[in-house]
Specification:
Shape of chain A: elongated
Distance between the termini of chain A: 61 Å
CATH superfamily of the largest domain in chain A: Response regulator
CATH class of the largest domain in chain A: Alpha Beta
Number of helices of chain A: 12
Structural class of chain A: alpha/beta
Helix content of chain A: 40-55%
Largest sheet of chain A: 6 strands, parallel
Oligomer: homodimer
CATH topology of the largest domain in chain A: Rossmann fold
CATH architecture of the largest domain in chain A: 3-Layer(aba) Sandwich
Organism (chains A, B): Trinickia dabaoshanensis
InterPro entries (chains A, B): HTH_LacI, LacI/GalR-like_sensor, Lambda_DNA-bd_dom_sf, Peripla_BP_I
Pfam family, one (chains A, B): LacI
Order of helices and strands of chain A: HHHHEHEHEHEEHEHEHEHEEHEE
GO molecular function, one term (chains A, B): transcription cis-regulatory region binding
Protein name (chains A, B): LacI family transcriptional regulator
Amino acid sequence: MSKQAPTLAQVAKIAGVSQMTASRALNDKPGVSHETREAVLKIASDIGYVVNRSAQKLSGSRNGIIGIMTPVLDNHYVGELVVGVGRAARAQGYETLVYTLFDEDRHSHRSVLGLIKQFTDGVVAILPRESAYFNALAAANVPVVAIDQRCSLDGFPSVSVDSYGGAVRAVEHLAQLGHTRIGFVGGDESIEGVRDRRRGYLDALARLGLPSDPNLIAPGDLSQMRAFEAGSSLLALSEPPTAIFAVNDLSAFGVIAAAREQGLRVPRDLSVVGFDDIPMASQVHPPLTTIRQPFAQMGRAAVNTLLSQMENDDAIAPRIVLPTELIVRESTGPAPRYAVGTRRTKRSDHDRTTSR
Amino acid sequence: MSKQAPTLAQVAKIAGVSQMTASRALNDKPGVSHETREAVLKIASDIGYVVNRSAQKLSGSRNGIIGIMTPVLDNHYVGELVVGVGRAARAQGYETLVYTLFDEDRHSHRSVLGLIKQFTDGVVAILPRESAYFNALAAANVPVVAIDQRCSLDGFPSVSVDSYGGAVRAVEHLAQLGHTRIGFVGGDESIEGVRDRRRGYLDALARLGLPSDPNLIAPGDLSQMRAFEAGSSLLALSEPPTAIFAVNDLSAFGVIAAAREQGLRVPRDLSVVGFDDIPMASQVHPPLTTIRQPFAQMGRAAVNTLLSQMENDDAIAPRIVLPTELIVRESTGPAPRYAVGTRRTKRSDHDRTTSR
DNA sequence: GTGAAAGCGCTAACAC
DNA sequence: GTGTTAGCGCTTTCAC
């Protein structure tokens, strides 16, 4: 079979220097002459030496690994974030290992943290709701930064996104297109980001002098199906909206499906704006106008913050809020010209009975 | 600050035994009296002892961690698999760490593998296309099992799914509902699973004595948007299909969107079957009839295979193919009664001009 | 059934 | 600049 992985001792021996010198050379530490360093580096590369990060960690130093803790990654939001953090970490010379929390985990906080601590120099926690882990994290004495839409956790540096501003931007965009009846499909109000979007929607309406009709707000739960229902009910109003701002992209998809189901075309008859800009948003028809969460930037911010926490243990915990960006694609267009209430013909109602 | 994590030495000292005895007790190894074991366990739990898996690994033994290598997890398929493997591993007492490969990784095969090897007892590789890593994996002498739709890699144990059978099942389902003109929206043919689905579709048609019209096969690329186009073109045929089997769920969504765009209702006017059963499939409207990939089972199979490879290094590499399951939801229904070609009125064509 | 010694691969601390 | 020593936390091997 393949031989054992080369060790530092072997590199040192071949180079004819001590392990320490080899170590210093490989780690870019001072105290090695230029030639010695070059020689060591060359030999290491020749024999395919790779440091053993377990040993590195065990001996009490950094090992260049950042841990990412996530809830089960079944949603796009988390997936994008993991990629964002991963790329940013790599750019800084760090590797990244993700540890997925399953719901059954409740008991094992301590051991999970132990594991993380043994393997990594610090952790980026993408924990959406339950803060139980945060307590454990706090006790574990590991550098941590939280990425979340609602990190009101004390003492942790955090990175989040300006949901409020994004919502305002979405409504403004719609208003600029001439829409005056703008609906909102919401989500789980226990999430701070969701509440912020709702507030943003309402405030923007008010600021623009547009009517804010409670009927135009439909509850959702961030899922496509629920948004389909919400959208359907909004469109069934006697004075339906000509535009809808959905709390996330998935919900926007649901709204578009509902519109189509009623014989409406997007964006001709209904404009729709989402939130997140998950990859699918640009790959559906019509490509979705949406508020982009700056995943890459969030990753970078998280990594940088983490690194500086590692340098300076007692640094004050920053709270970084990143701006969103309006991405105009093809799901929004000018408000229809027909007067409110005189909607163009829809297919007759018997046409809409459910099948099967 | 929080004190240092407790070590084995501390446990042993408190228990009044040697480290070795404590170690044996904690690892369920023979050679410890019942009472001693109980005592050690109790103390360990009391002081919150957690083994250091880095040290465990360094000292040459197993550490109970399974690595999962994945391409960037931006798609549902991979996400589900990660969850499946994670759960299965946990059920066997293993922790799981996922290492995400970024495209820029090309160079670093060796170091990645080094990293993996230092931290884990074995790895589940969810590598879709490039086998470059597989070579590295082969050379690294780490137990590996591949999960993939196309693992023709030699020597590796693999777990995959019976795409062919699934496709057959999908077509049979449609035929049973009375459909005779059944279309297919395909995907990237470089993926074995995709080719299998196409073959299954064709063979099932032949076996059922249904016409197999080349026009009824539209190319796709597994994305929703491309499937939207493919579906649109299929539905624009002079003799359009009354049912479409899409190569994956995302494509099925695209087809449904296309149908709606043309004023057709699903399933009344068009039945659609997907493949995968990603979580979204049940959360859209209408809930999607689809061929389920048994993600949980795949995870279990992968983990079990990996464990037995670990036991028995030179065991022959099994090639496990798991069956799929037809999940009937609401996107499929009886074939429309009207004769082929006398399609019910669609909205007039000028209605379909693109906006903006 | 239990323990002592040695070592996994590395780096911090202190020589020289 | 470079080398030596010690030790991270654990498990192996070999005693008893």
